[in-house]
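Checklist before submission:
- one chain only
- standard amino acids only
- sequence pasted in full

Submission:
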Amino acid sequence: MIIKRAYHHGDLRRALVLAAREVLVERGPEGVSLRGTVAKVGASTAAPYRHFRDKDALLVAVALEGHAELQACLRGCGAGTVTALGHSYLGFALENPALYRLMMGAGIGDRAGYPELAGAHRATRVVLAERLGEGADPGGFASTLWCLLHGLATLVIDGHVEPGSAVTEVDRSLAFLVDAKAG
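Returned file contents:
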């Protein structure tokens, strides 16, 4: 009698997310597939469906992890000054360009089907607001700052601003923004 044993990975969900992140860096969101990630971790082809209904669900899990990392980066960036926050945000985006693009929209088909992703965006804005002393209200200056940082990060990632001049550009832009707020 042959006894078939079930494959047990330990934490398959986590392994799939890590594998998807590797593929994301190598090939972008288009290169991520459930079949490819499951092959990378060595589980059965049916195994990922216990954790993710489709590729978008897997990519959302990766994006949520990215938001948590960005929020931690912003919380740990020192004094919480506009410049410190700007450098931390831009540093995260430029160190993780594929992840950042995924977090901000690239590669996920039906974003509206994942309210937790919208919640992660709001939580990132709240962290910025709290670090700026605006409380948990992500309006006003924090939203303006986020728009500026996102725009600059995207311009650098897309090759419109040289990476070597990104720090100078963020400092110049943030000084302009702070002066405008003061005036």
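Reviewer check: The chain is about 65% helix and 0% strand.
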